[in-house]
Amino acid sequence: xxxxxxxxxxxxxxxxxxxxxxxxxxxxxxxRFMARVLAPEREVSIEFTEPRPGDKELEKLWSxxxxxxxxxxxxxxxxxxxxxxxxxxxxxxDALERATRARDLPSALACLRSLVPDFTPSAxxxxxxxxxxxxxxx
Length: 138
Description:
Number of helices: 5
Oligomer: single chain
Low-confidence stretches: none
Largest sheet: 3 strands, antiparallel
Shape: globular
Radius of gyration: 19 Å
Order of helices and strands: HEHEEHHH
């Protein structure tokens, strides 16, 4: 909660922020923490399964084209990015929302690629987008 409050006071302009994680964080640790906090009276079991296509072993909070700099608040990094921020970002998000509401997968993927240039959809998602385009085409 402290990081959230510090981040909200970090900048007077749109800025990308990320937690300053000094070492890898494991999803099982997060799951155990959430179970302890959200259901302290229950024993919550964690079940491990095989990775599915598209599952990641590592999640990066910024791309190689971006730079992480120490922010003024401890525990927070300011990400210097080439991505759109502000009004242009809001317009792209609106376009993405319209595409998803219309269930227009090719347009939604185009919006995502515009918002996050290094986004790479899975082969399955691209095949699904091609199928949805061919059904609409005469």
